[in-house]
Task: structure prediction
Amino acid sequence: MLTTSEENYLKTIYNLSESGKKQVSTNSISKFLKTKPSSVTDMIKKLSAKKLLYHKKYKGTNISSNGKKLAIQIIRKHRLWEVFLFEKLNFKWDEVHKIAEELEHITNEKLIEKLDKYLKYPKIDPHGDPIPNKNGEINIKPKIKLSNLLINNNCIVSNVNDDDGNLLEYLNKIKIHIGSKIKVFDIIEYDKSIEIEIDSKNKVFISNRVAENILVTKIN
Amino acid sequence: MLTTSEENYLKTIYNLSESGKKQVSTNSISKFLKTKPSSVTDMIKKLSAKKLLYHKKYKGTNISSNGKKLAIQIIRKHRLWEVFLFEKLNFKWDEVHKIAEELEHITNEKLIEKLDKYLKYPKIDPHGDPIPNKNGEINIKPKIKLSNLLINNNCIVSNVNDDDGNLLEYLNKIKIHIGSKIKVFDIIEYDKSIEIEIDSKNKVFISNRVAENILVTKIN
DNA sequence: TAAATAATTTAGATAAAGCTAAAAATATTT
DNA sequence: AAATATTTTTAGCTTTATCTAAATTATTTA
Ligand SMILES: [Mn+2]
Ligand SMILES: [Mn+2]
Ligand SMILES: [Mn+2]
Ligand SMILES: [Mn+2]
Result:
């Protein structure tokens, strides 16, 4: 059994190693979790001793297959709770992450199975992220950055960086959410900002930075 | 903001002081929480410093009005989660307490309000205990021990000691649950065991000890 | 490539929540 | 009213998860 803190580290290291190189740096973990690098080093030692990570001093960390399994189950819980909060309690999709960050640490096999059933075995969470099944299998569909589309491309928003509350709030305001249909109208050469049409209604300009943090699946 | 441990102590002290004398002993807390008396003394100091308890060395502890308010809100959360687990996730009524013991510590005003609404503002939990409202008001109805009834009395089971897993399991087996209608058929003088009829169906004998731990409201 | 800079680890400290063993206060028996 | 037993507190220790400051290793730059 892992402590809440161990679980948070493990999940972070899993996420960082999925979204980039396999070797995760101490600083990147520290930055994400807002703890000091020395604290990260301590925790890496603990998790390595439990064979959930491999670590080479001064070089970097990568997750073991046992660590991966555990991390995926935490992510499963996190995303199922997000669905519950969003669909049943009617939270907005930018409010669910923080609460799920706590709920994910409640350990009770039966609880999560019953929750899954109650929610009718959802496949994606409110941010468009896939929900691993009981066996840890994840159904991943190819996603690209909205910033990579060309003029007249159409797409469905499938994912948004949910670690930044400000971004989520902004997208809420301009009515972009998971499942929104977006058409690229124009791309401004000067600053790479783009003009888009959301759900065949409002047209807005968004900065390149924003477009970089919205992942979509192309539909033509 | 209180830690999980502080919350558990505060709730325990509130419960002990409700069900008995106002002065709660260090040993009784220790017994209930399965920690050592010395650990209890430490925590009493911490909570006293926060003005949630009053404590006189070697004499005893009682809860302050601030402490009471906080304790009641924790109990509110506990019981609402129990309703969720029982009604929505279909847990048995003897399984919900343990899980709610963890869920009650998730602190988010909006979460508990939305949960309350979602559950349609329930008045009692699956063990028959009243659920305090947002303002901490509790609607308490008079309850008596099943062991205090006389022959031919009828009653509704309203409450069962939910701290003892074994008792709950046993009652589940003989199909006694909150809301069950019970008629006292016979009282055995020798050991005060009683013969009861449950929901106008099965007749069973239960020991005096069991009857002492079932609270009911008389219906005639 | 040597110096400067950045990243990482180590050493040592702190706070929370528990523990054991011993001391002190209170309660109960002879 | 002593003696004995029980309850409670104190003193000191442990583990977990943080931190700061200093040391070490790796990387970048001049
Ligand atoms: Mn978390
Ligand atoms: Mn999510
Ligand atoms: Mn609890
Ligand atoms: Mn209950």
In short: The mean pLDDT of chain B is 93. DSSP finds eight helices and eight strands in chain B. The pocket of manganese (II) ion (ligand 3) is lined by residues B 8, 101, 104-105 (CB under 6 Å). The beta strands of chain B are 53-56, 60-63, 144-145, 154-160, 181-187, 194-198, 203-206, 214-218.
